[in-house]
């Protein structure tokens, strides 16, 4: 019984430590997980590819459609409701992931 309790406490401590050390990306007053920002970048890339196929002059993604996409992580919803969300989302979509993963980018914290 003591062994099971000890193992459970160790697993719980490991989960709490790993969550606290997760990489976060800051945009204004908001913090987003690195995985969520990657998903946002995938969605904006998909939107850009669709727009380019329809009309090559349309290179920008409609961030209103990104906010309406059900695949967008829920943690972006407060940002989508904020005024100026398209600028914030475009900055997040431009975060360099390879640099962020090694925490060499100012907006990325938690390494």
UniProtKB/TrEMBL annotation:
Q: Which GO terms describe its cellular component?
A: extracellular region
Task: List where in the cell it is found.
Answer: Secreted
The record's section on InterPro entries has:
Guanylin, Guanylin_sf
Role: Endogenous activator of intestinal guanylate cyclase. It stimulates this enzyme through the same receptor binding region as the heat-stable enterotoxins. May be a potent physiological regulator of intestinal fluid and electrolyte transport. May be an autocrine/paracrine regulator of intestinal salt and water transport.
Q: Does the keyword Repressor apply?
A: no
Q: Name one Pfam family in it.
A: Guanylin
Looking up PANTHER family in the UniProt record yields: GUANYLATE CYCLASE ACTIVATOR 2B, GUANYLIN FAMILY MEMBER
User: What's this protein's family per the entry?
Assistant: Belongs to the guanylin family.
User: How is this protein named in the record?
Assistant: Guanylate cyclase activator 2B
**Spans through the membrane:** none
Q: Name the encoding gene, please.
A: LOC112262367
GO function term, MF aspect, one: guanylate cyclase activator activity
From which residue to which does the signal peptide run?
Answer: 1-22
All disulfide bonds of the chain are 67-80, 100-108, 103-111
User: What UniProt keywords apply to this chain's record, in alphabetical order?
Assistant: Disulfide bond, Secreted, Signal
Chief location bin: secreted
